[in-house]
Design brief:
heterodimer; A: 143 residues; alpha+beta; VC0802-like; 5 helices; 36% strand; B: 453 residues; Rossmann fold; GMP Synthetase, Chain A, domain 3; 2 domains; eight-stranded mixed beta sheet; 20 strands; globular
Chain lengths: 143, 453
């Protein structure tokens, strides 16, 4: 059920982000969600796309450092406190979140967030047990 | 022949047979006393010849009141004056030749980073001697007349290409004189021709393995068995990397054009130092500052006196290469010629950062020891507010890349700490994208010194 995330190493240099976006855009690959984490020297671009396997190949062939990581896509009720409730559940269960970011699109009025956690299966089960919708890879790529 | 080899393997085992593979057993395994007699005879002959034929040496000897007769044994070597690269430049192009040009059948030159190149010449006999020492060296990595030697050293004024070429021909191997560059074609030829031995710089061997990966060619599709790599210092870790990626035995060959070219010294399969072919070259280690001879085991500058060179004999040539003589005599391969350690760097590559001597090879060693880090790096030296700053750029490989910032930051920190432990000075480390550091097909450039002094 996990969603495949593409991670790209970016040197902190003018135009690097643009060249990644162009590379996958030229191949007709659509970005569903992304986040950039950066330090003074380098950055990490994380992408959720409609065709992760192909995006991986495209970027590899252009000699980017790329990695495929599994994340979960959680449907967050779009009202004040929606995210706080989900995070509270994870905290109670002792699930450590490495990072999270939001989707560009919404599903049926709710927001979508990407969570990177140590134990994906445990986090997924927790969300399901608590009645929170987790989207599968196929559902996400098809958005 | 195949039956004979099979029979020998059945008695000796494959490894012993490999170790016992000499080109010229009589010389390579000559008892040391006998070797010393040969060296002293050749030294006396060389000294009197240069005094007779080269005004530069005659002047240098006269200046310190030295007569050729004063040099009787190897112990007298230290009485002789040094020869430097500048002496070759000052006598550009043929001033140090000891024979008329009619006797010279080949001229090579090494690229000068500043001004004129260094010119070297060879008589017919010099070319024979060179082929002999290269044949011995190639035999160390398993070359024989059945070998297909892909020679990816550059052909031309650089001694690498033709040095290997003549040695390989003397052995009777099939030489593939592909020269440097065109990496994809190199790999295609290696595959199609069934090359068994590769000769090039170690950094180019590594680059070829990268290109193989890109092309999707695995080492199992090649017939490579051995490689002789030189022309730049390389770490043990780089050796492991090359051996694993190409599935070969990778040995270090040392040489410099001023002395002859490649083939001055070579590693045997025991891999515990490089045997100097002492019947042709006399080696000493001196303190680079004072010029004092150093005892076996101490690191210093390698100084070489040629014993057979006709066109361009060299008396106590300061190589600027840093190494040591391995104190233990005798090697389990059976060769008696003394060994020097793998090259540690060059006296002129040596960076002085805030008063500390730094060799790029030390940084390379650290990068390899931190597992998975590919050895592509560049060292930048700057001076800010009277203070030297060292920055090391390291390419991030797929193997170490993480999607978490903190893991990359801790990698950066680990590299920095390890380098600081080895060098004893603060450095900056910057992770950069793969392939962003320039690849070199000849000698690689690892340092960019931007200090304006």
């Amino acid at each position: 059920m996990p969603v495949k995330q593409i991670t790209v190493f970016l040197e902190n240099k003018c135009g690097r982000l643009a060249s990644v976006a162009r590379a996958i855009g030229d191949e007709g690959i659509n970005i569903r969600a992304f986040s950039v984490a950066d330090t003074t020297d380098f950055g990490i671009l994380r992408l959720i796309v409609n065709d992760p396997d192909r995006a991986y190949e495209v970027l590899r062939s252009r000699q980017f450092t790329v990695r495929m990581t599994e994340v979960i896509a959680v449907q967050i009720p779009d009202h004040p406190g929606g995210l706080a409730d989900v995070l509270a559940l994870m905290k109670e269960a002792g699930i450590n979140i490495e990072y999270l970011y939001a989707f560009v699109t919404k599903v049926s009025g709710d927001a979508l967030a990407v969570f990177r956690v140590e134990n994906i299966k445990e986090a997924e089960q927790l969300m399901i047990d608590k009645g929170i919708k987790v989207l599968s890879g196929e559902e996400v790529y098809a958005l | 022949m195949a039956d004979l080899i099979e029979f020998a393997v059945s008695i000796l085992g494959e490894e012993e047979l490999f170790l016992a593979h000499y080109w010229n057993e009589e010389i390579e395994c000559m008892p040391r006393e006998k070797l010393r007699v040969l060296q002293e005879e050749r030294l006396r002959e060389t000294v009197s010849r240069v005094y007779e034929n080269v005004p530069f040496y005659r002047n240098a000897f006269d200046k310190i009141g030295l007569k050729p007769d004063d040099i009787k044994s190897l112990d007298d070597l230290k009485k002789l004056p040094f020869t430097n690269k500048d002496d070759l430049r000052d006598n550009y192009p043929y001033g140090l030749f000891a024979v008329p040009l009619s006797e010279v059948i080949r001229i090579h030159a090494s690229s000068g980073t500043t001004g004129k190149p260094t010119v070297v010449g060879y008589t017919r006999q010099d070319i024979r001697s060179w082929a002999e020492v290269m044949a011995r060296s190639l035999s160390c990595c398993g070359a024989n007349k059945n070998s297909k030697i892909q020679n990816a050293y550059g052909y031309g004024l650089f001694t690498g290409g033709l040095g290997v070429h003549y040695g390989a021909e003397l052995i009777g191997a099939s030489v593939i004189p592909v020269s440097g560059g065109h990496s994809k074609r190199q790999i295609m030829l290696m595959k199609d021709f069934g090359s068994t031995i590769l000769t090039c710089t170690p950094s180019y061997a590594l680059h070829l393995s990268d290109v193989m990966k890109e092309m999707g060619v695995s080492k199992d599709e090649l017939c490579l068995e051995g490689g002789l790599f030189g022309a730049e210092p390389w770490s043990l870790n780089l050796r492991n990397e090359i051996e694993n990626r190409l599935g070969i035995i990778a040995l270090d060959v040392y040489g410099l054009s001023e002395v002859i070219g490649p083939g001055v010294a070579v590693e045997c399969p025991v891999k515990e130092g490089l045997h100097i072919w002492e019947d042709h070259f006399l080696a000493e280690i001196v303190d680079p500052e004072t010029g004092e001879q150093l005892p076996a085991g101490s690191y210093g500058e390698l100084v070489i006196t040629t014993l057979t060179k006709e066109a361009l004999p060299m008396i106590r040539y300061r190589t600027r290469d840093i190494t040591r003589i391995i104190p233990e005599e005798g090697c389990s391969c059976g060769r008696t010629h003394m060994r020097i350690d793998r090259l540690q760097g060059r006296t002129d590559d040596m960076l002085v950062i805030r008063g500390v001597n730094v060799f790029p090879s030390q940084i390379e060693e650290v990068l390899f020891n931190i597992s998975h880090t590919e050895p592509y790096y560049m060292i930048y030296v700057d001076r800010r507010e009277q203070l030297d700053e060292l920055e090391v750029w390291v390419e991030v490989s797929d193997e170490v890349f993480s999607d978490e910032i903190r893991k990359l930051e801790s990698l950066e920190r680990e590299i920095r700490k390890e380098i600081e432990v080895v060098l004893g000075i603060n450095v900056k480390v910057k992770l950069v994208e793969p392939k962003s550091i320039e690849r070199f097909e000849g000698k690689s450039k690892r340092v960019i010194d931007r200090r304006s002094l």
